[in-house]
Amino acid sequence: MNIDKGFCMKKLIVANWKMNGSVQLAKELVRDIINGLSVLPDVLGKCEFIICPANLYMYIVRHSSATTPYITLGAQDCAAEENGAHTGDTSASMLKDSACRYVIVGHSERRIDRGETSAVIKAKAQAAHNSGMKIILCVGETLHDRQSGHAENIVRTQLLESVPETANVKNTVIAYEPVWSIGSGLVPELAEIRGMHAMIAQELEKKGWPAAEIRVLYGGSVKADNAKPILNMHEVHGALIGGASMDAAAFIAIAQTVETV
Ligand code: PGA
User: Fold this and answer.
1) Which ligand 1 atom sits nearest the alpha carbon of residue 184?
2) Best mutation site among 221, 225, 247 for ligand 1 pocket (most ligand atoms within 8 Å of CB)
3) CA angle 146-151-157, nearest 5°?
4) How far is CA 159 from the centre of its chain?
5) What's this model's pTM, rounded to 2 decimal places?
6) pLDDT-derived band of residue 1, with 50, 70 and 90 as boundaries?
7) 11-255 falls under which CATH superfamily?
């Protein structure tokens, strides 16, 4: 049975600006992205965009994209707690209040550099859902995991341990990001991406999520020159883009590789 039949889902193209930029750069970048996309109705028919700037620059993206329905504001992290004495943290409800609709949780730069466990990520994901936000939940193996033949098991475990009870197909997008691929210029073989995405989708289907609506993005060194075969795989529903999202032309060029949805 082909349950995909008749179901059309745009590819989700997510910019993760990480801890980069300045007021001026953020203004120019979002302006150039909007100007570039506004003359590409074909791309807008096939892609939706989420921009995740540093929290301080959210107002710029929010203000600049106020009249562009194809751009949604996202955050790169949120606190697990709702409010209180947590100096320096930002709660999901504050993000929601500031017009954010998505938040990235579980990025490997937080799992590894900030020591966030899957339990912490699950709590953050739950806090985001409780505030009415959607999540982009990242999973991915290290080079060591891969070389020792454990990549699939590691990713499965991260997924099962990080996805909270509050998650459903409407409020949760998964991003498969091999750690060794992020910022390195290296990408897995297409068959490897396909296999990992299929496994992730199968695990979510076991939870009762409708197969045709599950979204699994690929992230890790996505550029205009490698995006086409990745983004046009049936199992890949979009991309989480770091480096190339800091350049409007490069970011748009990635979206232009999407052929059909
Ligand atoms: P990259 O980053 O595109 O620079 O590899 C992706 C990410 O970390 O989300």
Assistant:
1) 5
2) 221
3) 150
4) 14
5) 0.96
6) very low
7) Aldolase class I (3.20.20.70)
